[in-house]
Amino acid sequence: MSKLAALDQLLEQYNALNYHQDPILKKRLHEAQAWLKERIQETHHVLFSTPENQLMAQYFINRLYGGPEFDDLAIQIERLLKYAHKAEKILPENAIKTGMKSVGLAVLAMQLDEQVAAQLLQDYPAEQPIDDEMMRLSLIKLDQEQARYQQLDMLDELGAALDKYMRSFIMHTAFKMCKGTASKYHFELMYDFIGEGFIAMKPMKSATTFIHSFTAQERQIVADVHAGKPNPFRI
């Protein structure tokens, strides 16, 4: 079986999202994601502003929490799957495994955030700016508690994979050597998606430590939301 087979299922989940056919939902989704990313940056300001963590923080915000940037990547993933046999020869196996964890996180983020966007459209005017209370009530109605914990568990798994696979000098060298071939077959976006994980890790002592610090605070926010705590997003 192709090492990229799991990407096919992830792409199906992504293509099944309703916002592709609904411009109003798409706009609200992007607004909800913008709110979430701003909230994350505020919550984790100290962690994210530490010099050695800044590249990984950008990787989180730009890659792992979905957004319009993922649409272009999804198109390239579809192309990559048509040439899976070539891609598997180009990209080291452990880089593929780690990349698929990242793609899985991005797709899950899109699924959960689309549910939030749909709930917001159901309860509020489409043009009403999103605020903390709107988001708090929407998350309670949707009861995403377990799904959000799953998202955070997947992040912890990614941190372990980054430390285990992406710190290898041999793997990093092999990955850099295949850049030209990836460009030749037009897999640049997927290559960059994985490559940013390498770059983000370089200044860090441990991706696992960074991600555990992040997920611990996020788990507390999830728990506070579903416990009915006022202002749960402001730790």
TrEMBL record:
Pfam families cross-referenced by the UniProt entry: DUF8198
Domain DUF8198: 18-232
Domain of life assignment: Bacteria
InterPro entries on file: DUF8198 (IPR058511), FFLEE_fam (IPR058063)
Protein name as catalogued: DUF8198 domain-containing protein
Organism: Acinetobacter silvestris
